[in-house]
């Protein structure tokens, strides 16, 4: 269940910036959830692509929809909650996500032992990063694709993936 103090602590742990004057978090934070709240860490409601994805109570249903609505800025964090996501290939381009070395864009799955799984058997690529820079992916499982993560066209400079690295393909 959502606890504002705990989530703000998670933001700080993930490297979000805090104003020394107000304590306000100075990054954009987005939320994605599947069709269940079972075992959720970040959200309080099921995801719906009609939601804005800006609060734990209004998560988007798919990462693809979130990226279609918002462009990620340096330091932004996308919390992807516990569940299974079968919405097809996730495409992240420099138009969607262009972080900096000191303020990467983070896609973070549950860090409480639960899993966020992107799965769609039969598709070629799970996540495609094309010219995306300074993108960090943490605690996300991608399976059932020919290539779990496909990095193309100059790739993802300063990309960090802190999961098991089977199915990672990098081509220029």
Topology record:
Elements (H helix, E strand, L loop, with lengths): L3 H10 L15 E4 L30 H7 L7 E4 L2 E3 L4 E4 L11 E4 L7 E4 L5 E6 L4 E4 L2 E3 L3 E6 L7 E2 L6 E3 L2
Parallel strand pairs: 1-2, 2-5, 3-6, 4-7, 5-8, 6-9, 7-10, 8-11, 10-12
| Proportion of strand residues | 25-35%
Helix/strand-derived class? mainly beta
Tell me the series of helices and strands, N- to C-terminal.
Answer: HEHEEEEEEEEEEE
**Could you give the distance between the termini?**
42 Å
Helix percent reads under 10%
Shape: globular
- Major sheet strand order: 1-2-5-8-11
Tell me, rounded to a whole number, the average pLDDT.
78
How big is the Rg? Answer: 15 Å
Q: Main sheet?
A: 5 strands, parallel
Count of DSSP helices? 2
Number of strands: 12
Task: Provide the low-confidence segments as ranges.
Answer: 1-25, 163-172
Characterize the structure shown.
- The protein has helices spanning 4-13, 63-69; strands at residues 29-32, 77-80, 83-85, 90-93, 105-108, 116-119, 125-130, 135-138, 141-143, 147-152, 160-161, 168-170.
- With 172 residues, the protein is mainly β.
- The strands form three sheets. A five-stranded parallel sheet has the order 1-2-5-8-11, with no helix packed on it. Strands 4-7-10-12 form a four-stranded parallel sheet.
- The longest helix has 10 residues, at 4-13.
- The model is unreliable at 1-25 and 163-172 (pLDDT under 50).
């Amino acid at each position: 269940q959502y606890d504002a103090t705990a989530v703000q602590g998670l933001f700080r742990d993930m490297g979000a910036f805090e104003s020394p004057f107000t304590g306000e978090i100075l990054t954009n934070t987005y939320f994605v959830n599947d069709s269940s709240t079972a075992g959720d860490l970040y959200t309080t409601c099921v995801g719906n692509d009609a939601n804005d994805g800006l609060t734990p109570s209004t998560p988007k249903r798919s990462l693809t929809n979130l990226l279609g609505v918002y462009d990620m800025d340096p330091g932004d964090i996308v919390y992807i909650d516990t569940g299974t996501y079968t919405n097809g290939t996730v495409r992240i381009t420099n138009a969607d996500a262009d972080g900096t070395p000191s303020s990467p864009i983070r896609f973070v799955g549950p860090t409480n032992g639960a899993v966020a799984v992107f799965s769609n058997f039969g598709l070629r690529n799970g996540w495609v990063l094309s010219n995306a820079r300074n993108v960090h992916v943490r605690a996300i499982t991608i399976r059932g694709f020919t290539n779990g993560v496909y990095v193309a066209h100059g790739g993802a400079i300063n990309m960090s993936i802190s999961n098991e690295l089977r199915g990672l393909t990098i081509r220029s």
